[in-house]
Design goal:
By secondary structure, the protein is α+β, with helices and mostly antiparallel strands. The protein has 14 helices and twelve strands. It starts with a strand and ends with a helix.
């Protein structure tokens, strides 16, 4: 067997393998001889079948098995001789080009893991955020709690609807002469100004109307609306106002505390403070984790297995497309990024590279310091995953029992947390005391999605102001 390295590009090495025809012939003969010892055919005693008959019946299978074994042998020899840690399965060329009586040549390409030399974790500097929960934070949370438990009282028939009122409507939606059942219904409850049921174009027209009146709204669906039967068409929405209720001020007193399941107001405040502390602890942990990962992504620079990056990118991109499709289907899609697809893909390729890089470093740290996910942790992760599918819990658990290789997908985040916690015990920490408000500011732009709701509300408010604002004078516009 002759193995020749053709070229190396990054972590990929290409080899040519040539196996002499004599070696193949000898191994095929040995395979057939062994087969002849055990074969049973009518008219012959066990092990006494003539060799030419064995060869005639099993030569093709012998050839396939021998070539498969030789390819495997060559692959193992290359891996051992070159000290490779394969990132993915090798890829082969010309393995189906064997001709009887001739030397067998094929090519194999192998992509290996990079060599990672761990650095001193003390060089990682992290602000250790310690959140101080003050009286104001507790009182703000208490007021927010009371606002979420607003009670409503039926308003007089003459009452004109205003923002904050709870309105019950019977809704009929038609397109042409056809009723659209998915948008029609009786007793639909709307709190004006909340946009909780996705009918904001109806909701915003209710103000100023009274019980018994019918509000008619013409709404044109987007051209790319998921329901193709409605895309680009205008539908009529007729909302008959059945009942109007006004919000009642919620008194923060002992009765409210008992309603919330507490002994008294002091007990309620204590539980709120405890909850705020727990939430803050979870958020600071996420903040610390993000900064540890950022630091490692900056410190560790090495070539990445292209196949792993491509696989991660494909997963991210496909998931993004699925989310867009779903958002269009439920009407929640908003096109807020008009960059070309090529530019977006470049950004997500960068994200994929970061994830692969961090995954490799985390695996190396775990290996070097014997950090493992225990069987109990894995079982708990499987049970948590099963709880996400009510009524199918047993099926989910059975799936992971039958496919143990899939367990890594749900335990890898656990291993990541264990490694980050370990690094935090070795890193250089600087204690920084912050309020909940300061913590919230620090988390914006650090944790994905954090603060997006607030930004969305600001955008909506800004759009509304733009629509209702009076035009500026030319001098004012220029000054702005």
């Amino acid at each position: 067997m002759n193995i020749e390295e053709k070229k190396s590009t990054g972590l990929t090495k290409d080899f040519n393998v040539t196996i002499p025809s004599k070696t193949i012939a000898e191994k095929i003969s040995a395979w057939l001889a062994e087969k002849a010892k055990h074969i049973r055919l009518d008219g012959f005693r066990p092990g006494k079948v003539p060799f030419n008959i064995v060869e005639q019946r099993y030569s093709l299978q012998a050839e396939q098995d021998v070539l498969e074994d030789l390819i495997k042998e060559a692959t193992q020899k290359i891996v051992k001789d070159h000290g490779l840690r394969l990132a993915v399965q090798p890829s082969y060329e010309n393995v189906n080009q064997y001709a009887v009586g001739k030397d067998f040549s094929f090519s194999v390409s192998m992509e290996s893991f990079p060599e990672i030399k761990l650095k001193d974790f003390k060089d990682i500097k992290i602000d250790n955020l310690v959140v101080e929960i003050g009286e104001k934070e507790v009182e703000d949370a208490l007021k927010s709690l009371s606002d979420r438990h607003t009670k409503f009282k039926t308003a007089a028939d003459s009452h004109k609807i205003k923002e904050g009122d709870q309105v019950k409507i019977d809704l009929v939606c038609t397109e042409g002469k056809k009723q659209i059942k998915s948008f029609s219904g009786k007793g639909i409850t709307i709190v004006v100004g909340k946009n909780e049921v996705g009918l904001n174009f109806v909701e915003e027209k209710l103000s100023g109307h009274k019980k018994g009146e019918t509000v008619t709204v013409d709404h044109t669906f987007e051209a790319d609306y998921a329901d193709k039967t409605l895309a680009g068409k205008t539908a009529k929405f007729e909302a008959k106002i059945i009942e109007v209720s006004e919000p009642q001020k919620t008194e923060i007193n002992e009765a409210f505390a008992k309603e919330m399941g507490c002994e008294d107001l002091k007990d309620l405040r204590a539980k709120i403070k405890e909850s705020l502390q727990k939430d803050s602890l979870n958020l600071t942990r996420l903040y610390h984790k993000r900064h540890v990962l950022d630091a490692m992504a900056e410190v560790y620079k090495f070539d990445l297995p292209n196949s792993m990056v491509k696989r991660e990118f494909d997963n991210i991109w496909n998931r993004l497309q699925d989310e867009i499709t779903q958002a269009k289907a439920d009407g929640s899609f908003e096109e807020d990024d008009d960059r070309p697809e090529a530019e977006l893909k470049k950004e997500y390729e960068s994200i994929a590279s970061r994830r692969v890089r961090l995954g490799l470093v985390i695996a190396e740290v775990a290996k070097a310091h014997t950090i493992r996910v225990t069987p109990e942790m894995a079982r708990n992760a499987i049970f948590r995953e099963a709880m996400r599918y009510p009524g199918q819990e047993k099926d989910v658990i059975k799936f992971y029992r039958d496919n143990p290789q899939m367990i890594e997908q749900i335990t890898s985040p656990i291993l990541e947390d264990l490694v980050v916690d370990f690094i935090l015990t070795k890193a250089t920490l600087k204690e920084t005391k912050v309020t909940t408000k300061q913590l919230a500011e620090k988390l914006k732009g650090v944790l994905p999605g954090y603060g997006e709701e607030e930004q969305t509300e600001k955008k909506k408010s800004s759009k509304a102001e733009t629509k209702t604002a009076k035009p500026k004078k030319k001098s004012e516009s220029e000054a702005a």
